[in-house]
Design brief:
Number of strands: 16
Distance between the termini: 32 Å
Largest sheet: 5 strands, mixed
Strand order of the largest sheet: 2-1-3-15-6
Number of domains: 2
Strand content: 5-15%
Protein name: ABC transporter, binding protein
InterPro entries: Bact_solute-bd_prot1, TAT_signal
Shape: globular
Radius of gyration: 24 Å
CATH superfamily of the largest domain: Periplasmic binding protein-like II
CATH architecture of the largest domain: 3-Layer(aba) Sandwich
Helix content: 40-55%
Number of helices: 23
Length: about 550
């Protein structure tokens, strides 16, 4: 159910119990309110019964899932495979799967999900597990040396230019599109994402956007509210103590909290992630920069679309870099050595810090990860805005008549499963590889991964049915806030969209290395930004400026 429809029902008098009861009460509410409920008024189907069943494995609040849980979920979701594959049909087939082992998720879950698939089909899978920081280098080496040694890869859309653009991937068969219900994906993950030259290559298993995660208890504390009121420092318009709405307010709150106590412990504001992370850490600077750099009248924010001249050294990006430099002294000791895994899983979930940007993983992990101590005190929104936004076309900062500029960072466009073209010469192996990919990208299994620690976040329209989350054990207010932050980010008219161009992670990795020196005080913000821009210009010339311009424009829908 869409958040808006759910809220409409509540305003019409529906309680959570009413919504969960099903057809009779829902039909009555529809008659009273005039809301069109569609499929929600139909009797529960076998599919909805299956979804309800798997969402109780192990059950929200009942401990972190184990490999036994992964296997059980994988087995219960095998019916779609059985409709397309005979038992033992892939006996003798062996193939290799390359993906992540980040936070003991990704490939770790895939193994469990696919064990019952292997038992049923007879195929055997070998695994290549990579740390997130090592992923880009390993993939680029395989491409550059022509030594692709895997048949399936877990990969993000930013790499499609490097991989699909070089003809290394197998085109998705029509039966796979039907099995995974590809039309159920949220709009921003539909083509051109997952495609190249009009051909579909990706089974989407994740949607990506950075949302804003914050501690509701910290921002409701009366002692901190009194101290904030008495403080004479810059408050950037946050007159009453509460959750910051702009990056200017985030800075003010972070500096204010330095040296403060909350429940007898040191309390910190925003958590930056300055340590390089294989290119993926650049997204966290991007989330600080997007509201400054992404003007509503301009689709581009990383490069000038007509020339590929980098914008990373313009005043907007330099401000974001300076923000990190200025905030680090108010953050936990040794924050300079924190990467995003540290900020999300070792700090925020464990109770350190009161604000972070992260992918949607945090939203499910605060309720289902054994290390989380903040399950009942976490709130969500889109990323903070900015009081002003830089206009790259005029070279001026502007204050919008509509208020602060917001630009959610739709970072990475989610993980997908791609089958490599090297299987195409063997029809049996090709079908087996695509069947495995389709199993991992199944509609029902995907809901489980969105609700539990997996490395993946909501990415289908069907993932926004709030009563399913509530029935699984999520608090109604919590999950409404979480899903709203996801949906509002995906659908924001000024979202900062990931460019699917060749070499994008070479750009990001080069930036990370320079930023590490900048944050360590070896370069000033402008100097670091200029060094990144120079490195990016060199990369663009190496890859081919004219082709990059063409592909960059296409990725932005220009």
């Amino acid at each position: 159910m869409r958040v808006g429809l759910y809220e409409k029902l509540v305003r019409a008098g529906a309680t959570r119990r009413d919504i969960l009861k099903g057809a009779a009460s829902m039909a009555a509410i529809a008659a009273a309110s005039g809301a069109g409920l569609g499929a929600l008024t139909r009797p529960a189907s076998a599919a909805s019964e299956l979804r309800a069943q798997i969402l109780q494995i192990p059950g929200v609040g009942k401990g972190q899932p184990t490999d036994a849980d992964f296997q059980k979920v994988g087995e219960l979701c095998l019916e779609a495979t059985k409709a397309n594959v005979k038992e033992g049909e892939f006996a003798g087939v062996e193939f290799t799967f390359m993906g992540l082992n980040n936070q003991n998720l990704h490939n770790v879950l895939f193994r469990g999900f696919l064990k019952p698939w292997e038992a049923y089909t007879g195929a055997k899978i070998s695994w290549i597990d990579l740390a997130q920081a090592d992923y880009n280098a390993r993939l680029q080496q395989s491409i550059a040396t022509g030594t692709v040694d895997f048949d399936i890869i877990e990969m993000g859309a930013p790499f499609e230019g490097d991989v699909c653009g070089k003809g290394l991937t197998s085109e998705m068969p029509d039966w796979v599109k039907e099995q995974i219900d590809i039309d159920d994906l949220v709009a921003y993950l539909k083509p051109p994402v997952g495609t190249w030259d009009g051909k579909q290559y990706r089974v989407t298993v994740d949607g990506d956007t950075h949302n804003f995660n914050y501690r509701t208890d910290v921002f409701a504390d009366s002692d901190l509210a009194a101290a904030w009121k008495a403080d004479s420092g810059d408050k950037s318009g946050l007159t009453e103590w509460g959750v910051p709405k702009t990056w200017q307010q985030v800075q003010a709150v972070t500096k204010f909290l330095k040296g403060k106590k909350f429940k007898g412990e040191d309390v910190y504001g925003y958590l930056d992630a300055p340590k390089p992370w294989g290119g993926f850490g650049f997204y966290f600077l991007g989330s600080r920069a997007s509201a400054y750099a992404k003007h509503p009248d301009d689709k581009a924010w990383l490069f000038d679309a007509d020339t590929m001249k980098p914008r990373v050294n313009n005043p907007a990006w330099v401000r974001a870099i300076q923000d990190v430099i200025d905030a680090l002294p108010s953050e936990p000791p040794d924050q300079i050595n924190a990467d995003p895994n540290t900020t999300g899983f070792q700090q925020f979930l464990a109770g350190t810090g009161s604000m972070i940007p992260w992918w949607g993983d945090i939203g499910s992990n605060v309720k289902t990860n054994d290390s989380s101590v903040i399950g009942d005190v976490t709130g969500f929104s889109i990323l903070p805005g900015s009081d002003d936004v830089y206009n790259s076309k005029t070279g001026q900062w502007e204050k919008l008549a509509s208020g602060p500029n917001h630009s959610p960072n739709c970072a990475y466009l989610g993980w997908g499963v791609y089958v490599m073209a090297r299987v195409d010469s063997d029809e049996k192996k090709k079908k087996a590889a695509w069947s495995a990919a389709a199993h991992l990208g199944g509609k029902d299994l995907s809901l489980w991964t969105a609700m539990y620690p997996s490395g993946f976040q909501p990415h289908r329209k069907s993932h926004f049915n709030i009563p399913e989350w509530v029935a699984a054990g999520y608090d109604e207010a919590f999950i409404t806030s979480y899903l709203k932050s996801e949906g509002d980010s995906y659908n924001h008219p000024n979202a900062a969209i990931e460019p699917r161009i060749p070499g994008i992670f070479q750009y990001y990795s080069a930036a990370e290395d320079i930023l590490a020196n900048t944050f360590a005080g070896k370069m000033k913000a402008q100097e670091g930004a200029d060094a990144i821009a120079a490195a990016w210009e060199k990369l663009t010339d190496q890859i081919g400026r004219e082709s990059q311009i063409k592909l960059y424009k296409a990725s932005l829908g220009m």
